[in-house]
Design goal:
single chain; 302 residues; alpha+beta; Jelly Rolls; Arc Repressor Mutant, subunit A; 2 domains; 7-stranded antiparallel sheet; 4-stranded antiparallel sheet; 11 helices; 41% helix; globular
């Protein structure tokens, strides 16, 4: 199990992206807060060309505010307490809005979810279930390696509550991995990456992950490959942490560019590029439209 926290904000533009994750080999719990930007799953997974996201499923629960989901040709407004399951992640075309959500992704071969889930399920959750999910969300926001037992108890309670609602989740999948949770080296690497990737705006002067960990570049590259082999994290498929950083800069750029007030110059500074030209060059090399065109594309699709 890996615990991850990342924060990105532009206070003057009312742009916020917070992401807390608990990652297991077959599934991911995620707490997200998004304001002022649009997240296009098809763009960030297919255009960037990392893996096969269509094989994963996702549950989205709106805890506060609103979350607008575009999936299978439908537009679903999730108010507080409502949930939606998309059986194929690439069918979840766009998720937009300002709100706090709880999310779960799972692999088709994982033990967390049964195969009886429909293509797209929309449900209103009960108060008890929402309370359990809110507890899990708070536990994720505050999670550290010292709080793993509390976090796992919260995850088990949330999963069991969802099962009582009739959703196809099995809480036994949370209990079974407890004996094999210790992976301090991988967690140390995750912590270093999270710190680095949350501070992209500090630019080239920022210390490298190798410096943070006191390891050689080769050792860090080996650890990144080990994490990817165990957890299948798409942003860690490169040869070293710089590849992970460059992928994440593009991923984050596709989201932040959707805000109408975020200029190419501002975006380049936020993502740690030396100039707007360097940002546009990176986008072009990845087969992406320019940041300006990409932002318009995301807003028009929404």
């Amino acid at each position: 199990m890996l615990i991850s926290h990342r924060r990105h904000a532009l206070p003057s533009e009312a742009v916020t992206l917070e992401l807390d994750r608990v990652v297991f080999p077959d599934w991911v719990f995620r707490r997200a807060y998004v304001e002022g930007v649009i997240q296009d799953e098809r763009l960030t997974t297919s255009v960037l060309g990392r893996g096969a996201p269509s094989e994963r499923s996702r549950l989205v629960v709106s805890l506060e505010g609103s979350v607008t989901v575009f999936a299978l040709g439908r537009v679903v407004e999730l108010g507080a307490g409502e949930a939606l399951i998309a059986r194929r992640l690439d069918d979840l075309t766009i998720r937009a809005g300002a709100g706090h959500s709880f999310e779960m992704d799972w692999a088709p071969t994982g033990e967390l979810a049964a195969s009886t889930c429909g293509e797209l399920d929309h449900a209103k959750l009960g108060k008890t279930t929402l309370a359990a999910i809110a507890d899990m969300s708070r536990a994720m926001r505050e999670a550290a390696t010292a709080t793993v037992p509390i976090l796992l108890d919260a995850a088990e309670a949330a999963t069991q509550a969802l099962r009582f609602e009739g959703l196809p989740f099995d809480a036994r999948a949370i209990r079974e991995p407890r004996a094999a949770l210790a992976c301090p080296g991988m967690q140390q690497l995750t912590d270093a990456l999270d710190t680095e990737l949350s501070e992209l705006h500090l630019g080239p002067a920022l210390g490298t992950v190798e410096d943070r960990l006191g390891c050689s570049r080769r050792t860090v590259a080996r650890r990144i490959r080990e994490v990817h082999a165990r957890y299948g994290i798409s942003a860690l498929t490169g040869a070293d942490w710089r590849s992970a950083r460059d992928f994440y800069r593009l991923l984050l750029g596709t989201i932040l560019a959707s805000h109408p007030a975020v200029t190419t110059n501002r975006l380049a500074r936020m993502l740690g590029y030396s100039s707007p030209a360097a940002l546009c060059h990176a986008f072009a090399n990845a087969g992406l439209p320019s940041p300006t065109a990409l932002g318009e594309l995301a807003r028009n699709a929404a």
